[in-house]
């Protein structure tokens, strides 16, 4: 998925890594340009004077086909590569086998996660079986390979979830549920690991390498209270304690290191206004009254909610406003309007997500000549929302599924 020519992008780094990153950038540029051999020798001489040159203990380590950035050593190389933009990893993987192995086996992403380094890209589908991604850091659109599928899966209700380096899409084939997995490591789709209790119409959210899904309906339409945790590194599902209330068409978020299920339906006609909080350390659920009051209706989409810096926001598609949850008073406070050109049908077709430190609204106007998809962004502060359109393109304007991957 990482295509075309790319270059390394400077980042704000701790002072201890600034000089290391300069060595990486200069060395990588020189590796691909033979006319700068003399400059490379001068860099190495200067570095040796500073006592930073490392001994190369084996011929294989010094090989340009297998080594990383030999003048600075493997550990410093990796430490600096962690801070490169993930959009550059495709180009870096083409340098040699060591770079390719480091990136495509996921080691760099695991180390980034451990050090709290992440870039958030938005993945969404406006046409059945077709997915696109948008990189807000590099202002780039990326087209994913088309999903493999049959007619039954194509027409079924689908849920999506991004966890680690995976995009999971949940759907249904006849009377069974399946999971398809897109990996950014291979830029390909493959069968995903099925849940212990397969379902659809559930609430979900991810945090690092873990994701939790709760509620939903089984293959026979029964509304569930059960919940499961998925670990993408272990490629396994684990059963969690059940919620207090069965619910479908609910939403999920992580906030303050706890998982929340918000709103949903207790039946085809009964709208739930309560939420539930799951404490991962204690393994217990707690009901929170009125947590989704007014956020969804019987014919509307699940609550459109997102968390930025441990603050919960909602897009009220009925009133077309953005609200913030007051944790102390357990109530919603209206902040201001949604982007003017964001269109939905009772909330369906509109995406509202957290993307790092910003809120993203994805949608757009519809016309006879086709639709326009627009991405509007706002970094929450003390004032009313000031939406900025950061990207747009001709596309289907109805968003079927959306997920944000931070890695």
UniProtKB/TrEMBL annotation:
Spell out the SUPFAM superfamilies in the cross-references: Kelch motif
GO CC terms in record: nucleus
Q: Which SMART domains match?
A: Kelch
State if Repeat is listed as a keyword: yes
- Recorded coiled-coil stretches: none
User: Is Repeat included in the keywords of this UniProt record?
Assistant: yes
Q: Which UniProt keywords apply?
A: Kelch repeat, Repeat
Superkingdom field: Eukaryota
Protein name per its UniProtKB record: F-box domain-containing protein
Organism from which the protein derives:
Asparagus officinalis (Garden asparagus)
